[in-house]
Design a protein that fits this description.
There is one protein chain. This protein has about 325 residues and is of the alpha/beta class. It folds into two domains: about 45-135 and about 260-330, D-Maltodextrin-Binding Protein, domain 2 (3-Layer(aba) Sandwich), CATH 3.40.190; about 140-250, 3-Layer(aba) Sandwich (D-Maltodextrin-Binding Protein, domain 2). Helix content is about 40%, strand content about 20%. The strands form three sheets. The chain has a six-stranded mixed β-sheet with strand order 2-1-3-10-4-11, with helices on both faces. Strands 8-5-9 form a three-stranded antiparallel β-sheet. Strands 6-7 form a two-stranded parallel ribbon. Helix 6 crosses helix 11 (about 310-330). About 40% of the residues are buried.
Length: about 325
């Protein structure tokens, strides 16, 4: 009898210690970082974020992400601008760096599209691997207040009756292709005029030197608010957060045309999966921050995030978009 009671007491005591130990372990697990944040040894030195463009535009957004990433990873994140050759110089530089996650690329997804760059031998999907799609948006079709058109249907009617009098601007091949596809699809004539940058385009637009531009709306927002520039239709997959009243192409019945734009983070091909997962988790945390989401909204971009594979799908959408458009109008890069 005494032996049975003793055995029973020992059993209860042992079970109590086991439960206490289990509870402690559970609490420890709750306080411990998730596996996506606990990659041993990474990072243990400064990182670099390469932006293949000059100051302004995507450079501003890239620097904002670098600052937040530094705080999360507890390591400096140094921004390096390596502009030139339509983003090719900076992209090739990152592709040639060690595949350890310490050198990243911040770039628009459709920038290095073969149909837009003559003799492009650099394949971004083979030389680099995506970390995540930061955000996506689109280019907007805009006119000026001197053009008698309050919407895209009125603009088309105006352009059709104004043969030889409608000009559009471009600073890159994507803008030429977008404009040519738009006018061909909707059946009006227009002449393309090259400019060096958005500042020149804006001046030309408000002075009626050009009657149409297709560009990301960020640089035009002050003139849009003043009523000097009029957005007609947005080319993104969803409405622009800064122009919520402007319909998309699909919403006005043009569902076979899109002017998509995205930004993403890339690392050299061969970067280990745990390192990519670590960076992916960090950038997804950054995308939750209110000030970052506001910055993206101000730039007419919608935050995306998610797994790395999501950016691959976005790139496929953009490259297919350009390829289809080029075939339809017989466009070849100069």
């Amino acid at each position: 009898m005494h032996k049975t009671l003793k055995d029973h007491w020992l059993a209860r005591s042992s079970r109590r210690r086991w439960l206490q130990g289990a509870a402690g372990a559970t609490a420890g697990m709750a306080l411990a970082p998730s596996s996506g944040w606990a990659q041993d040894g990474f990072p243990d030195k400064p990182l670099r974020l390469v932006i293949p463009f000059g100051a302004g535009g995507s450079d501003v957004m890239g620097r904002a992400f670098a600052e937040k990433l530094s705080g999360l990873l507890k390591q400096p994140v140094i921004v390096e601008n390596k502009p030139g050759a339509a983003a090719l110089i900076g992209s090739e530089y990152v592709a040639g760096q060690p595949a350890d996650g310490y050198t990243m690329l911040f770039i628009g997804g459709g920038s290095l599209t073969p149909i837009l760059i003559k003799d492009l031998k650099f394949d971004i999907r083979k030389a680099l691997r995506p970390v995540l799609c930061v955000a996506r948006g689109g280019m907007t079709v805009m006119t000026n207040s001197a053009v008698p058109a309050a919407n895209v249907q009125e603009f088309i009617a105006y352009a059709r009756r104004s043969k030889g009098k409608v000009n559009y601007s471009y600073t890159a091949g994507s803008m030429v292709l977008s404009s040519e596809m738009f006018r061909t699809r909707l059946g009006f004539e227009a002449t393309g005029i090259p400019y060096k940058g958005a500042g020149q385009v804006l001046t030309a637009l408000i002075t009626n030197e050009i009657q149409m531009t297709i560009d990301v709306p960020f640089n035009y927002m002050p003139m849009i608010k003043d009523g000097k520039v009029r957005p007609l239709v947005h080319g993104g997959q969803e409405r622009s957060p800064t122009l919520p009243d402007v319909p998309t192409l699909a919403e006005i019945g043009i569902d076979d045309l899109i002017f998509a734009v995205s930004y993403g983070i890339w690392v050299p091909a061969g970067t280990p999966d745990p390192v990519v997962a670590r960076l992916n988790a960090a950038y997804n945390e950054i995308l939750k921050l209110p000030d970052i989401r506001q910055r993206l909204a101000d730039a007419a971009m919608v935050p995306v995030g998610g797994p790395p594979e999501g950016h691959t799908k976005q790139i496929d959408i953009e490259q297919q978009m350009w390829a289809t458009a080029a075939r339809r109008i017989g466009f070849t890069p100069g």
